[in-house]
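for the writeup, i need someone to sanity check this before i put it in the appendix. the sequnce is what the collaborator sent (i think, or maybe the updated version? ugh). structure was predicted straight from it, no edits. if anything looks off just tell me and ill rerun, i have time this weekend
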Amino acid sequence: MTALFQLPFDEPKRGGRAPEHRVLSVTELTAAIRLELESTFPEVLVEGEISNSRLWKTGHFYFTLKDATGQLKAVMFRSSLSYIRFTPEDGQHVVARGRVSVYAPKGEYQLVCEHLEPHGLGALQLAFDQLRQRLKAEGLFDAARKRALPALPRKIGVVTSLDGAAIKDIIHILHRRYPNVHLVISPARVQGDGAGIEIVRSLRQLGRVAGIDVIIVGRGGGSIEDLWAFNEERVARAIAASPVPVISAVGHETDYTISDFVADLRVPTPSAAAEVVVARKDEMANRITRAEARLQSALRDLVQRCRAKVHALERRPGLAGWPARLVLRGRHAADFSHRLARSARATVGRQERRTYGLRLRLEALDLGRRLGDVRIRVLAAREHLVHAAHEVRRGRDGRLRAIAGRLENLSPLAVLSRGYAVCSTADHATIVHDASTVRPGQGVRVTLHRGELMCEVKTTA
């Protein structure tokens, strides 16, 4: 069976050779189509409505452009997406600029966008409207969160460029109206790329300075592109997070920036901000003088009303003669006061006398004095006891010596000392009083004054 791809696509000409056809891979064909499309449509402008939009984790934005009869897949890479001011969403009618290419893994052609522009509305205006609606929904524009400015701030912070005329106008007006003010300037670029980041950094630095009462942030006038740094979301949130009130002084009369909505107070120019933030010294003095005059007038009116009320009360029938009654009541009160004082003095005197008597009794019962008497008595008793003990011991010694002498006289040892001896059996069991009680050959013991003799009986008589 002949393979399908081996058959010729065209009938060979008479008398000629069959044409040779090259077999392409899918990758080769896709690459050829992509090369053809990219060379044919290197840059196109396509108008359509965004649908099926998705922002991937990689930062790339995928969407579809469609109109009434067709649709076109499109992609905008992260590097290009970072340059557009507004947020592309489904339903927006836009004009996309880019090139036509082929996504090889799926074999689909798509538009690789390099720029998006809202159709019929500027990108900056759309970005402004989107951010304003989002921040308004969060409550950052609510009047309830606006803070009042201090009447006479001691330290004022300023966020602006050092090269512009705004800082010169602020310094001139503040020096003229309030020479003693302490001004803290945190410089920042106010237009161009990176200006929003510098404004945010300056606001945070001033927020950490001790004693700052209010902050002025602004610049002179310009186009919407020049003023765009004050429309950035990061600047708006930094103003809302400021610990002290913020005055937005961007130099434009009719149009508003996002910072104007978020700030606690919006003024049209930096010069107006300097005039608003502090009052003139003479104006402040005049206000104090007027307040003092109003206070004095109010006090006079109050005194007059009180006097009129007193006079009206005096004329009432029930209050006739009240001064005399008041004097009488005063006299009664004085009498009562005198009696009370006299009673109090009498009571105090009795208590003092009682206290004095108790003090005498306590002094009589003084433990120190009583202890001295007891000590003397104890010493006398001790001496008497020692003397009695000596007398008893002396008497007992005499009796003991007498008894000892009697015992000495009655002691057998005293008799033995005069040459006598005591004869007893060998075991000291019996004293030999009679010679007939022993037998010859029996041993006896003879006790002398000094020592003993062991003897054997030879004969008895």
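The domain at 144-279 is CATH 3.40.50.2300 (Rossmann fold). The longest strand covers residues 44-55.
thx in advance!!
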